[in-house]
Amino acid sequence: MSVHIAAKKGEIAKTVLQPGDPLRAKYIADHFLEEVKLVSQTRGIFYFTGKYKGKEISVGASGMGIPSIGIYSYELFTEFNVDTIIRIGTCGAYTTDLKVFDLLNVEFSASESTYANYAWGIEGDLIAHQGKAFEMINETAGKLDLLIKPTNIHTSDIFYRKESGIPAIASKYNCSAVEMEAFALFANAQYLGKNAATILTVSDIIPTHENISADQRETALKPMIELALETALNF
Ligand code: HPA
User: How far is CA 206 from CA 27, 163, 165, in A?
Assistant: First the structure.
């Protein structure tokens, strides 16, 4: 048991899939895992452990934003001996070069956040994916015939803002999309020497306001979920 996760030691697998939304974690557990056990529901942030094709995997939410994923990923790595976290989330595209439903494998996250520096003394505003998960996602996508783009993204603290243009940091690092968590996950993994990757499905195109509708979301996220689960079989 950690401060924010009620699971007992040994109840969380070495590899964790981490969506932002607790109900998405439940959806994955219900539809893709066998022998599922709910191991934590503190604050409504569900963690499930079950089997996928015979391999033990946990799936649990990060909540939204850097502080929230900072807490959950740190406790998973340090209190539950998790080796690998694969974040599976959605993002907004800054450019019409990306389309809704596109799959992105995050190579670098750029952020204005002070999290990495204040927490771990990691300097700079750019942090890479950590360990071998990124490469395995690319390889697994190839085997599944799924197109996935290695991409730099902006991890923002801000969802609603006054200015509508592309933030300076996103232009500086050629970030084609924005989400709100990868930077803290990568920072924790870098400091702790763990594996961390982020797969994103483009859910909205910011310049055109096009987005995946609520009823499209379930099917839209299926390729990403399957890719993450199949990748997890390699660990
Ligand atoms: N901004 C930040 N995070 C997001 C967005 C967005 O537009 N879309 C999905 N996650």
Answer: 27, 12, 10
